[in-house]
Write a structure and sequence with these properties.
Helix 2 packs across helix 3, helix 2 packs parallel to helix 4 and helix 3 (about 115-125) packs across helix 4. It contains 8 helices and 10 strands. Helix content is about 35%, strand content about 25%. The protein has a single domain (about 10-235), classed as Rossmann fold. The model has no long low-confidence stretch (mean pLDDT about 95). It is α/β, with parallel strands linked by helices. Strand 7, helix 5 (about 170-185) and strand 8 (about 190) form a beta-alpha-beta unit.
């Protein structure tokens, strides 16, 4: 019997990828490889292109120039990729039913729903809240429920778009703890943030974006200790990038 290696979406490679809408350049010739390993954190000012890059790497949109490949393949359905948006929509159902919906969408047998849901709620720190209406959760709890729904897909790659924006410090820490645990399990995390402190706490590698381009990409410790570009030096110093 010939043993074939398991199909993987990694690395995700953006090769000179661009994205334009109605003549406006949102991403400009991005070349970036997302490989297994520590979390990648995208930073940069508003309008830098972070969210669009995440959507492109997830496969929600296709580049208008260049190409994106997943494990060397083009236009691959996102079966092992999950995404959590900054303001995730909560279904008008209980917490558990929100997770059941995610499990059903990937074909998990109904007989396994309760066990899977209990495990996912434990992973995100929402034990005991399964019967509560999802829309009555706090903002931080809703974000962790969104993480549970994303993890229900058993992702190889998890994309997070500003997952702690507008959360208080306690809720931010709870979300960050989940992100660390997810990364420790070998799931590739790619997230964007405006919070340089959060980037320092979570990133293995930093990608600084400005005006739709990748300005600098380097290990986090190196980026913060010795930024190589003027834009990076200014951004780390707290100056505005215009």
């Amino acid at each position: 019997m010939i043993m074939r290696p398991p199909v993987t979406d990694l690395p995700i490679v953006l090769d000179d990828a661009g994205y334009r809408v109605r003549g406006l350049t949102i991403l400009d010739r991005i070349s970036l490889a997302i490989a297994p390993g520590a979390p990648i954190v995208l930073i940069g000012p508003n309008g830098a292109g972070k969210t669009t890059l995440i959507r492109l790497a997830m496969g929600l949109i296709m580049p208008t120039s260049g190409r994106v490949t997943w494990g060397g393949r083009a236009e691959v359905p996102p079966r092992r990729r999950s995404i959590v948006f900054q303001r995730p929509a909560m279904l008008r159902r209980s917490v558990a039913a929100n997770i059941h919906y995610a499990l059903n969408s990937i074909g998990v047998a109904r007989s396994d729903w309760d066990a899977c849901t209990a495990d996912l709620l434990e992973q995100v720190g929402l034990v005991g809240l399964g019967t509560r209406p999802a829309r009555r959760l706090s903002g931080g709890e809703q974000q962790r429920l969104a993480l549970a729904r994303a993890l229900a897909r058993d992702p190889e790659v998890l994309f997070l778009d500003e997952p702690t924006a507008s959360l208080d410090p306690a809720a931010t820490k709870a979300v960050e703890d989940v992100v660390r645990a997810v990364a420790a399990r070998g799931i590739k995390v790619v997230m964007s943030t405006h919070d340089l402190g959060e980037a320092r706490r979570l990133a293995g590698n930093i990608v600084l974006m400005h005006r739709g381009r990748v300005v600098e990409c380097s290990p986090a410790a190196e980026f913060f200790a010795n930024p190589k570009t003027e834009e990076a030096r200014r951004f780390v110093a707290g100056e505005l990038l215009l």
